[in-house]
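Q: I'm writing up a methods section and want to include an example of the input and output format. Could you take the sequence below and give the corresponding predicted structure tokens, formatted cleanly so I can copy it straight into the document?
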Amino acid sequence: MARFTRKNARRGLAAVGALTVGALALAGCAGGSSESGDGDTLKLWHYEGEDSAMTKAWNEAIEVFEEETGATVEFEQKSFEQIQKTASQVLDSDAAPDLMEFNKGNATAGFLASTGLIADISDAVDEYGWADKLAPSLQTTAKYSEDGVMGGDTWYGIPNYGEFVGVYYNTDAFAEAGLEIPTTYDEFVDVLDAFVAQGVTPLAEAGAEYPLGQLWYQLALTQGDRQFVNDYQLYENPVDWQGPELTYATETLAEYVDKGYIASDVSSVKAEDAGVSFINGTAPIFVSGSWWYGRFVEEAGFDWTLQSFPDTQLSLGSSGNLWVVPENAANKELAYEFIDITMRPEIQAIIGNNGGVPVAADPSDITDPKSQELIAAFNGVLEDDGLSFYPDWPAAGFYDVIVQQLQGLVTGTQDAEATNANLGSEYEAGTADFR
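A: Here is the clean output for your methods example:
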């Protein structure tokens, strides 16, 4: 297996920049540290929006941290793209922050780990007991091998929240149509047929960005098992791109368009448009992520619910993005103290009561009924060991490949076999260094 080195950091950086949100992740703890309470400054970067659950929680964590340590937090708001595109250069310089949020996955956090740009934090994980707060499937994206493959033995980050993809149902629209929320896949298809018969396109979808690819992968997961996920995501065995899981997914997605479950112009629709079509009641069903939850609470003027995809224990999802500590950080110990504060139940509860998915909250602290529903759905996925990551993760740039190939499928310019052959060719090329 080829290993990333600093010599090919420039090539790897281009790969890192190719990944998008849709989708849409070496020294020890010693060195570069400072004692708490000595008035030092913690340089903190993250890219969450001002009104997000995470920002609300982390703002409170900043106040607690400054009061308890006597240190000052110097926070800089960054965009996701800023951090993705400049991480390798900035982290290899004296301008590196002490702590930053970074995307999980092989070509992102894994790449930084393999090049030595972020610190091995295993000692801090042991000291603070963070592993005890994280389910095994959440730990996968925080631990990497020396080659940057997630699921390794060494901790390089700590997730502060989780995320997963499920099915949003407009329960008011269902009631008006005389339909029940489905509990099995057969019932799900029956509901799709019933809405079509009433002149309604049931699925909010977007083929120009991540939602369509996530539906495609979810369909594959209905036919797969944990070994399929490990082969696809962790390169344990070759992936059969004409095998039953991926053939079913691609053929079924094409059928969804042919049967009118998805709009015929889906290839040009963006994620925002799909989300808005659910918010305004145009489409009664949306297969997408928990990151929409808070917005739907605020903007959807009807009753709705989120449930896991029917008849499968496997769901797209993972930990959220990671707290990582740059190897060149001046104040690593302060960074660890801040991470630990964000893992406290009271800080996790802020995430949970504002539409986020906390990873270490006390359930009794979650008082908002809608938030309780979200967290219950996520916990159900965790209990099934169901988090199965995202379809573009295995190879840098694979997100764009999935979008392009599925656009060809839904517009009818290529059939399922050709689509899978093209996807497989790009997947094999993009993962060759890891196999």
